[in-house]
Structure formats: structure tokens, C-alpha cells
Target: Substrate import-associated zinc metallohydrolase lipoprotein
Amino acid sequence: MKKLKIYSLLLLAIFFISSCSEDSLSGTSVIKDPQTKSNEFDEWILNNYIEVYNIDFKYRMEDIESDMNYNLVPADYHNSIIMANLVRYLCLETYDKITGSTEFIRTYFPKIVALIGSPAYKNNGHMVLGTAEGGRKITLYNINLMNMNDIAQLNSWYFQTVHHEFAHILHQTKPYTTDFNEISGADYVTDSWSDKDLKQALQAGFITPYASSAVDEDFVELIATYLTSTQEVWDGFFEVAGETGQPILRAKFDIVVNYLKDSWDINITDLRDEIAKRIDEMDEHDFTQLQ
Model:
């Protein structure tokens, strides 16, 4: 019995050694990164965003690029094509026109534009229209409900956010004068801004309720709101602001105008006029196709 056990163990060892020698380890890992086949849209992004502006336009939903605090869905493919065309047409190329080259956008604009199909909601019920991460990325939400024929919606949901976040990068790169901080002084209300409606904000000297949350938000909201408003709408804000809000708004906007001109050689009215011209010519373009 003892000899049988020894013999069995010897056979097992021989089998094990033989198996190991025949099944040598491969040098190729079985753990691979997710692979996505490149399509026509990806090639278009490479040619029109990455190579021209050094900006990656992410329309596929990636865990690493998504905020796990919200329940989100991917952006619709066709709406993503429309948005990619619109961001280039109504934003990037307008700065190209005013600054004379693509270098301004290539140097200062966030390096990632990410799209999310659904809206994101905070605990207080406010819908998040867009977010930014340290000047590196802008995320635009609610792409699946986008109406490309409604310029008011496009500005309110998307381009107000884009101009707002880009303006943050500009003032963080070249600070505006501290005189701006002193105009509204202690009137900033942090999270309580949501308690104001637009009329109350304007009469207190803020172009939007959110502008009253902090001095930097006040500064960039003036830029974003001006660029996404017609002159008629802009004049209407000052009319509603009345005798108390008007002089405050004018003092702030004068600083904004001078800052953009002196620091960046950008005439904000010329920039808005270029955007308005392109809006008027939108019917001449098919934004549903990769142009």
C-alpha cells in the first residue's frame, strides 16, 4: 500500500512537470483596455478639434469622465454631432475671427469638452447645465433634449456655460483689477443666490442671480450674459435694474470691457457681433452633418 502511494505521487509529479513545460506562459496579457472602433465622427473630431485646437471632444460616456453623484445617460450620437458643430461654429471660430488665429483657443480653452445626454440635478432641485474642472474640462448636460433651432435654449443651456467657464480661465490667467471687488463689496450671498429672482438680482446690481454668489462669478456672468444676449435684451436688463442697479452694473461692465481689451486685446462687442452674425447665418449650414 505504501509503495502504491509513492508510485502515485511520482506519476502526479511527472504529469505536473510535463504540463508546466508544455503550457509555457504567454508574454501577452489577458487584461486589455476597453477598445472602441473608430468611426467617421472620431476622425472628424481628430481633424477639427484635436489637431486644430488641441481639444478632445468626448461624446461617449466614460466612467472616468462622469460625475458619479448623478444618475446620467449617454449623449445621443446625432445630437453630439450637432453640438460639436455648434461649439466650433458659435464659439471657437468666433474667437479665431476676433484674435486672428486659432492659437488663442488652442492655448487657453479647456482641453476636454464632454457631453452627457441627461440633465443633472442637485439635492435642492436645481438643474446643472454645465460643470468645469480646473480649467481642464467643460461638461455639457441634457444633450438629448437639445433643440438646435431654439437659439434661446442653446444659449441658456450650453453657450452661457461655455463662455462662463472660459472667462474663468482668462481671469485666472490674468487677474482683473481689484476695483471690481469693491463695487458690490459685502453684497455677495454665496449659496443664497438661488433665493433671488432676476429682477431682484438686477436691481441689486447683478446681471443674473448666480452672479451674486461670489465676485468671480459676478465677473464671468457679465461676460457670458453679454455674449449670449442681443443688444435689445441687454438694454432690457439695465432698464429693469432701475436707478439703484444700473450704475452698479455699468461700473462693473466698464471694468469687464477694459479688462478684455487691455489684457487680451479682445473687443467684447466685436466678439458678440461675430456671434450674432453667425446666429443669423445658421440656416445656411447643416449642423447635422460632419462638415
User: Anything to note?
Assistant: Residues 40-179+188-284 form a domain with the Collagenase (Catalytic Domain) fold (CATH 3.40.390.70). Confidence is low (pLDDT under 50) at residues 1-33. Strands lie at 56-58, 112-115, 120-121, 127-128, 130-133, 137-140. The two ends are 83 Å apart (CA to CA).
